[in-house]
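testing teh design pipeline on a random one, pls ignore if ur not involved
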């Protein structure tokens, strides 16, 4: 129907969980099991046309086509890094641009998924933050970032990290639905332990997440355990100070019995001193966290530099002296602006 010259958009069928779809079909007088069949067509066969859902009666296919929209993920560019990572730039229905990255490794194919267009938290080292917040993504828009590599690029995606553009817990309800679709046995059927949500330290989100009872992994972008340094790097620290954040993380590991991962981007002269390493190690031991160290990536106009190799090695040694597990991660896809902190939804 046209309203003021604009065509009214039907709801996207990929925005609904299997349970929601079942309820809607029930209200339309359809059998409950049809929702599983539809899920299987969408997420196990990757179809983008209701007419291809051959085990559904024609009348139901027509009903679906007049009630929901089903568009394929719209990718306007794919870039491949020398190290194998691939970056996809998606154009959404309203013209917004968002990026996802496929990170291939020997035994896993991980997709780094964006949850928002831009981000309100403006972390100093992050290109997404420099854009400011534009809007939240819907569950279907998140799931499309997995469907594209899975069905169009022919990669069997095995792991998901919600670590792309945006703060996932700022878009909590849509995030939960996307996880349910990705995790559902008739959906993408990716196990919850193979899904990681990474937050900049959104305390209410962590608390809600811990009460959910899911087995989904939690990572915290920490980057400093000093209030002043962290507030400069991550303005979210002024809302949720690191002291409180660490206490909430400790409660999380105690209550759930699960480990947290601290992500720590190393920035030369800012957070790479030996005493900062010891403080990080102590905090991780107190919380029950393991640490991923990532030397920072450069992005256009960024003032940040990664530390010298020797400084990084000494930092690792100091952290490990506190008895915690510490991994030095290399950020993938730097040459195509796809590494940690580089995603900015640019059409280049
Ligand atoms: S690091 Fe995460 S929370 Fe910070 S600005 Fe970037 S996307 Fe937002």
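output:
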């Amino acid at each position: 129907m046209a309203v003021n010259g604009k065509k009214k958009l039907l709801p996207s069928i990929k925005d609904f969980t299997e349970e929601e779809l079942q309820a809607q079909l029930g209200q339309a007088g359809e059998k409950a099991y049809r929702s599983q069949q539809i899920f299987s067509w969408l997420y196990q066969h990757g179809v983008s046309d209701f007419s291809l859902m051959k085990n559904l009666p024609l009348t139901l296919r027509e009903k679906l086509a007049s009630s929901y929209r089903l568009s394929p993920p719209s990718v306007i560019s794919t870039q491949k890094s020398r190290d194998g990572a691939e970056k996809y730039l998606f154009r959404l229905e309203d013209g917004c641009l968002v990026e996802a990255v496929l990170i291939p490794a020997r035994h896993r194919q991980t997709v780094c998924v964006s949850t928002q267009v831009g981000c309100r938290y403006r972390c100093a080292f992050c290109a997404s933050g420099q854009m400011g917040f534009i809007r939240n993504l819907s569950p279907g828009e998140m799931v499309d970032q997995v469907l594209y590599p899975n069905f169009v690029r022919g990669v069997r995606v095995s792991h998901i990290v919600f670590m792309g553009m945006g703060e996932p817990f700022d878009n909590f309800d849509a995030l939960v639905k996307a996880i349910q679709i990705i995790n559902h046995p008739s959906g993408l059927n990716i196990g919850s332990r193979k899904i990681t949500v990474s937050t900049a330290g959104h305390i209410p989100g962590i608390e809600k997440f811990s009460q959910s009872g899911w087995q989904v992994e939690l990572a915290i972008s920490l980057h400093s355990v000093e209030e002043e340094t962290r507030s400069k790097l991550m303005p979210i620290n002024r809302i949720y100070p690191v002291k409180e954040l660490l206490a909430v993380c400790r409660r999380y590991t105690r209550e759930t019995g699960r480990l947290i991962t601290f992500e720590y981007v190393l920035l030369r002269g800012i957070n790479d001193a030996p005493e900062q390493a010891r403080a990080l190690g102590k905090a991780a031991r107190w919380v029950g966290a393991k640490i991923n160290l990532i030397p920072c990536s450069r992005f256009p106009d960024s003032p940040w530099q990664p530390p010298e190799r020797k400084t990084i090695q000494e930092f690792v040694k100091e952290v490990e002296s506190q008895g915690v597990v510490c991994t030095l991660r290399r950020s993938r896809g730097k040459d195509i602006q796809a590494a940690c902190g580089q995603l900015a939804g640019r059409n280049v």
